[in-house]
Amino acid sequence: MSGDPIEEESMTASLQLVDPRLLERRDLTVDDLVDLPEDLHYELIDGRLVLTPSAVPLHQNISTYVLMAMHQYRPPDFYLSSDQSVWLDGRNERRPDVVVIPFSKGLRSPQRVEDVSLAVEVISPSSKIYDRKRKWDDYARAGIPLYWIIDPLAERVTFTEFALDADGQYRLQQESDQRVAIEKPWRITLDLPAWTRERDRLREADQP
């Protein structure tokens, strides 16, 4: 638990939807989870079911802004999805905040990792270590060509872009807290200063 009361309330509600015996197992596969409620937020990590709290509105809005920016010039052969389950292998299922998939896969879930050309994670207090290290390793090993991390917890909202090299390792392409232009998977512009201003206004409004 992160200590955030909103995340803790969400986690308590999620626990009521799951057979507690599943949470004790360390040998689960993706096939064991097919009957879980569709609205349950979870990830499967090395055979272990991990419940994830619903994101706060700022997190959700940043994911939406990324989707909107990407949709503007989206080529017709591609499709976008948010909070999308992705099968990495039989014992691992992740849930990136945004993914790019082929248009032909737009009616399927979970998505197979070989169909994901970009995974985007927006960092939250409970996911900071996983997004920057564990998911970074998992997505590279699974062969996802592009990985973006957006960090609204930094002093200024920060964008970091990685691309998979020929050795199967992610290499840093750019990191910025300014208005940024990205060329892959297609031309996209993200207005990070606007997101920073919005976050700061939310913090000011949340003061007692």
Describe the protein:
By secondary structure, this protein is of the alpha+beta class. The protein has one domain: Alpha-Beta Complex (tt1808, chain A), CATH 3.90.1570.10. Helix content is 29%, strand content 29%. The strands form four sheets. A six-stranded mixed beta sheet has the order 3-6-8-9-10-11, with helices on both faces. Strand 12 and strand 13 (188-191) form a beta hairpin. The radius of gyration is 17 Å and the shape is globular. The two termini are 24 Å apart.
Task: Write a brief structural summary.
The chain is an alpha+beta fold and 208 residues long. 29% of the residues lie in helices and 29% in strands. The protein has one domain (56-205): tt1808, chain A, CATH 3.90.1570.
Task: Looking at this protein, list some descriptive labels.
5 helices; six-stranded mixed sheet; endonuclease; nuclease; 208 residues; alpha+beta; Restrct_endonuc-II-like; disordered N terminus; three-stranded mixed sheet; Nuclease_put_TT1808; globular; tt1808, chain A
Assign an overall shape: globular
Biggest sheet details:
6 strands, mixed
User: Could you tell me the mean pLDDT?
Assistant: 88
| Terminus-to-terminus distance | 24 Å
Helicity level: 25-40%
Task: Kindly give the count of domains.
Answer: 1
Strand order of the largest sheet: 3-6-8-9-10-11
CATH homologous superfamily label: tt1808, chain A
Fill in the CATH topology.
tt1808, chain A
Model regions low in confidence, pLDDT < 50 over at least 5 residues: 1-13
CATH architecture, by name, is Alpha-Beta Complex
Assembly category? single chain
